[in-house]
Amino acid sequence: MTTNIDERTRMERFLGAFTEVRAGEGTTALLLALNVFLLLMAYYVLKPVREALILGEGSAELKTYMSAGQVVLLAFVVPYYGRLVARFNRMKLINVVTAFFMSCLLVFYVLAQFDVPLAIVFFLWIGIFNLMIVAQFWSFANDVYSKEEGERLFVIVGFGASLGAVVGARTADRLIEPFGVYQLMIVGAAILLGQLLITNSIDRRESSRQARPGAGRADAGPRKTSGANAFAMVFRTRYLLLMAVMLMLLNWVNTTGEYILGSIVKETASAMVASGTTGSLSEEQLIGDFYSKYFTLVNILGLLLQLFAVSRIVKHFGIPWAVMILPLISLASYNILVFYPVLYAVLAAKVAENSTDYSLNNTVRNMLFLPCTYEQKFSAKQAIDSFFVRMGDVLSAALVFVGTTMFALQPRGFAAVNAAIVVVWLVLAWAVGRDYARLTGRQAAPARRAAPAV
Question: Which one of 92, 290, 303, 388 is most buried, by most CB atoms within 10 A?
Answer without folding.
Answer: 388
